């Protein structure tokens, strides 16, 4: 699976959009981009995933560049409860089934 | 609530001992995964079972073993415990074999003294 690179930390004001970038320049054509988050020491929580097209669900939006070398997770209206470590993972479904977590981005949402 | 349950929540034991961590997957999920999270190593995949059979192995020590039972619950056995085994152990489950939409349990915090 391709390596991903994320900034170690970001701040966001409550109510504003949080845009979390991820670089995956070596991603292959059949690798998906998955996002998980971990709030404090709780179990990681699945957020969203995509292959080529932009995706949106009730939690977030995922924007993938046309060349697929980077992506951005958008939390449209961040709240204090969104403070967490966010992990971007490149994953090829159907073969390896392990998730390889990097160091992620620690998002701090402030008042 | 992910639907994945893990017991116990906390475990304190001494070096050299053996412990068993238990996981019940979400209803309908056939795959169970085990992960270890320590301060210095981050979240690391240990092993995956699918419908009772081992499917993938990660950085799992020989002192550790796991199994998945016919009712699909899983147990992770850790033996000859060392101080460095102190960590959070997470179980996750998914419907199929090779999906990364995995649902994580609340974890078991193991402290080895």
Features:
heterodimer; A: 111 residues; mainly beta; five-stranded mixed beta sheet; four-stranded antiparallel beta sheet; 9 strands; B: 113 residues; seven-stranded mixed beta sheet; 0% helix; 53% strand; globular
Account of the protein in words:
The complex is a heterodimer of chains A (111) and B (113). With 111 residues, chain A is mainly beta. Chain A is built from no helices and nine strands. Chain A starts with 8 loop residues before the first strand and ends with a strand. The relative contact order of chain A is 0.35. The mean pLDDT of chain A is 93. With 113 residues, chain B is mainly beta. In chain B, strands 2, 4, 5, 6, 9, 10 and 11 form a seven-stranded mixed sheet that branches. Chains A and B meet through β3, β4 and β8 of A and β4, β5, β9 and β10 of B.
Layout: helices, strands, pairs:
The complex is a heterodimer of chains A (111) and B (113).
Chain A lengths: L8 E5 L4 E6 L8 E7 L6 E6 L4 E2 L4 E4 L5 E6 L8 E8 L13 E6 L1
Parallel strand pairs in A: 1-9
Antiparallel strand pairs in A: 2-7, 3-4, 3-8, 5-6, 6-7, 8-9
Chain B lengths: L4 E3 L2 E4 L5 E6 L6 E8 L3 E9 L2 E5 L6 E5 L5 E5 L8 E8 L8 E2 L3 E5 L1
Parallel strand pairs in B: 2-11
Antiparallel strand pairs in B: 1-3, 3-8, 4-5, 4-9, 5-6, 7-8, 9-10, 9-11
